[in-house]
Design a protein that fits this description.
Length: about 210
């Protein structure tokens, strides 16, 4: 397990891929990367909807689209702006061992999220820093599943063994101070525009690179 300088384990939970259309994104991931997505659900409080690409080790890529363009949501506004340049990676989510301690260190408010899956199941989690992830610095945000889970279909993509690395743009020092980690998370820093630029997935002896 990765560890940080403040003493609690951290791990990459998921990466968000912004798309104009979930059906098209599902087809793209299948044809381009050989990855199968399962339908997710709707985030009524955020105005978005998703599909999930399980990539092993309880990690996933979240294909996210705007469900309600009229929603008064920073996330919808940010997605709309980003998608003006086409479908792309949008945000990185980190799961710390202690969300309260992380939020206190960064002076963040913890909020609750939920979505209803296509089967009708209500999935809940807590998070902090989503505003910063959707803002101009595009910093990673933090998630805590508690007793819940992201409801991944792990029968899909069984030949993929987790996230090998994530490449981030933006200022490296700012990101490392934000994460409070000692460099053991599998992150690469490339400069340029902030936010995730690429994701590497383990597949046997190869690495599948998603941009």
């Amino acid at each position: 397990m990765e560890s940080c300088e403040y003493g609690w384990p951290v791990r990459i939970d998921h990466v968000i891929y912004a798309t104009h259309d979930l059906t098209s994104a599902i087809r793209h991931f299948d044809e381009q990367y050989g990855l199968t997505a399962s339908r997710g659900g709707v985030h009524p409080q955020l105005g978005t909807c998703n599909s999930l690409v399980a990539v092993g080790r309880r990690q996933y890529i979240e294909l996210m689209a705007v469900a309600d363009p009229a929603a008064d949501s920073l996330l919808v506004r940010s997605l709309t702006k980003v998608l003006a340049d086409g479908d792309r990676l949008f945000a990185l989510s980190i799961e710390p061992e202690d969300l309260e301690e992380t939020a206190a260190r960064l002076n963040l408010q913890i909020t609750e999220g939920e979505r209803r899956s296509t089967s009708g199941r209500v999935i809940r989690w807590r998070m902090a820093g989503l505003g910063e992830a959707a803002g101009p610095q595009r910093l990673p945000f933090f998630v805590d599943w508690g007793d819940s889970d992201p409801d991944l279909d792990e029968s899909h993509n069984g030949d993929v063994d987790g996230v090998a690395w994530v490449e981030l743009g933006g200022d490296e020092r700012t990101a490392r101070r934000w994460l409070g980690e000692s460099g053991t998370l599998p992150l690469r820093f490339a400069g340029g525009p902030p936010g995730p630029l690429a994701v590497g997935l383990r597949r046997g002896p190869e690495t599948v690179v998603i941009r």
